[in-house]
Amino acid sequence: MDELSHAARMAADHLSAVPEQPVWRPVPADDRAWLTGQPLPDTGAALEDLLRAICDHVLPYPMGNGHPRFFGWVNSPPSPAGVLVAPLAAAMNPSCAGGEHAGALLERTAVRWLAELAGFPHRPGAGLLTSGASMATVVALATARQRVPGVRVDGLYGERPLTTYVSAEGHSCLRKAAELLGLGGRYIRTVPVDHAFRMDVPALRRMIGDDLHAGLRPLLVAASAGTVNTGAVDPLADIAEVAREHDLWFHVDGAYGALGVLDERLRPAYAGMDLADSLVLDPHKWLGVPVDAGCVLFRDPAGPRDAFSLVPPYLRDEGAGELGWFSEYGPEQTRPFRALRVWATIAHLGRDGVTRLVERTRDRAAELAAMVAAAGDFELAAPAVTSVVAFRYLPLRVNGGIPAVVQRRGRAFLTGTLLGGQETLRACVLHPGTTRDDLAVLLDEIRAAAEELAG
Ligand SMILES: Cc1ncc(COP(=O)(O)O)c(C=O)c1O
User: Fold this and answer.
1) How high is the pLDDT of residue 159?
2) Where in this protein does the record say N6-(pyridoxal phosphate)lysine is found (predicted)?
3) Three-class secondary structure of residue 36 per DSSP
C-alpha cells in the first residue's frame, strides 16, 4: 500500500519540522470549520486525498508537546520507537482483552518492565495497561473498595461511611475516581501539605483519628510520587506506616513522577513507594510513550481480579491459564495493543536510556529553577524536586494572564495553576532535547507576555 509509505514519510517530515515551527498556534477560522463542521460524506474519498487533507488541516495544528520548548501540563514528545511501531499495532489490530496472541502476551513483559523500572515488586498478573492514569486510578481505587466484604453484591448500602485521604496537592483524578466509585465527596478528606507541598503526615494521623472517633471507617490513603503542580514526592514511607497501623489501602499516584526513582540523587525521596498496595504510573508521561498508555500495578494480583472478573459464557477460554485475561482485571473488555508502544520505547532506551532521560530532564528543571532564583523579576514557588518548576513572575498580579499570552506568541508553551490559592506558573520539562537556551527563551517570553499584558 503506497499510501502507508507516504503516511510514514509525512510523519517523519512532521517530526523533523517540529522544532522549526511555532510551538503552538491558534487554529484559523476556516481550518477550525473544517475540523469541527464537516458534513458526513455520502461517498468515500481516496486514501491519498485523506493524506492531503491531513497535510492541510491537521498536521499544522499540533498541541505542541513535540517541541523542546513545550513546558505545559505533563505532556511529553512521542518516543521515536513508539511512533515507529504505532502503525504496526494498528495493522495487527488485536483486542488485548486476553487470549493466545502476541498483543496480549507482550503486555505481560511491558507491565513487568514498568514495575522493574519503578522498583516495584511484581507478581505475574499484578498489573495492566490502561488509557492513562485516570483510568488506572479507577482500577486501583475499585480494588481498594473491594476490601469491603460483599461490596460487589451489596454495594456500599448499609456500610459505615468509608473515608479516603488525599493531600491538597493530590491529582483531581483521585477525587474523580473516589466519587465515581460511590465513596462520596463528603468523605474524601483533604490532607494539608507542608512547606514543600508534601502530605502532612501528623495531620493525616489526626484526621484518621477523628474519623475513627466519629464511627467512620478509614479505607484508603492516596499519596503522590510527583504531584502535578510542583513535582513533590510525599513522605511515602511515613504514609505507608500510617496505612499499616490503621489497615488502610496504600495507593501511590506516580503517574508523572514514579520513574524519578531511577535518578540516584532522587531515590531516597521515593523510599516507601515499593510498599504501596497499588501504584499508578503513566508511560505516556516521563517515558514518552505515544498517548495512550497508563499503567496500574498491584502488590497482589488477586485484588483487581476479585474486583473486576466477570466472564460471560461467550468469553470462556479453557486455555487462558492461571492468570486469565486482562479484561478480568479492569473495566475494559476490548483493549488496544498499547503494549507494543510501551515495549518498543523501553526496549529502545534500555534501563540506562530511561535513567538518562529522567536525569537529563530533571537537570534541566533544576537549571530553570536556578535561573528563576537568580533573576530579580521571578520567584520560585516551590522546591524543584523532580522535573516540574513552579514559579511566579513579579509583579504577582500578572501571573494569571501570562500562560495564554505566552502560548499565543508561539515561541514557548507553559501553563499555570493555583498553588496555595496563588496564581502560579509551572514548567514541566519532559523533552530530552530541551536546552539551556530554550529555558532562557521561556523566561524572556514570560517577560514579553507580562509587558504585553501591562500595555
Ligand atoms: C500526578 C498526576 N496524576 C494523574 C494524572 C492523570 O493522568 P492521565 O491524564 O493519564 O489520566 C496526571 C496528569 O497530568 C498527573 O500529573
Assistant:
1) 83
2) 285
3) helix
- Are residue 303 and residue 398 in the same domain, yes or no? no
Q: What is the pLDDT of residue 382?
A: 98
From the CA of 74, give the closest atom in ligand 1: 14
Rounded to the nearest angstrom, the distance between the alpha carbon of 134 and the centre of ligand 1 is 6
Structural domain boundaries enclosing 153: 86-345
Q: Is 133 in the pocket of ligand 1 (CB under 6 A)?
A: yes
CATH number at residue 369: 3.90.1150.170
Identify whether residues 299 and 376 lie together within a single domain.
no
| Residue to mutate, 71, 229, 256, 296, ligand 1, most ligand atoms under 8 Å from C-beta | 256
pLDDT tens column, 122-179: 999 999 999 999 999 999 999 999 999 999 999 999 889 999 999 999 999 999 999 9
Kindly give the number of the ligand 1 atom that is closest to the alpha carbon of 131: 10
Same domain, 361 and 332: no
pLDDT of amino acid 238: 98
Q: Do 424 and 455 form a contact (C-beta atoms < 8 A)? A: no
Residues 210, 162 share a domain: yes
Q: What is the mean pLDDT of residues 106-132?
A: 98
Between the CA of 256 and the centroid of ligand 1 the distance, in Å, is 6
Residue 288 lies in a domain: yes
pLDDT at 396: 86
Residues 357 and 340 in one domain: no
- What is residue 432's three-state secondary structure? coil
- Are 313 and 356 contained in the same domain? no
Tell which atom from ligand 1 comes closest to the C-alpha of 284. Answer: 10
232 lines ligand 1 (CB under 6 A): no
Pocket test for ligand 1, best of 130, 137, 171 (most atoms within 8 A of CB): 171
Mean pLDDT value of segment 29-46: 98
Mean of pLDDT over the chain: 97
- Is 286's C-beta closer than 6 angstroms to any atom of ligand 1? no
The whole-number pLDDT of residue 259 equals 98
Number of domains in the chain: 2
Q: What does the pLDDT average to over 235-263?
A: 98
pLDDT, one tens digit per residue, over 266-282 is 999 999 999 999 999 99
Q: How confident is the model at residue 455 (pLDDT cuts 50, 70, 90)?
A: confident
Are 348 and 300 in contact by the 8 Å Cβ rule? The answer is no
Distances (CA, A) of 90 to 85, 97, 282, 378, 410: 9, 16, 21, 47, 33
List CB contacts of 43: < 8 A, sequence separation 6 or more.
none
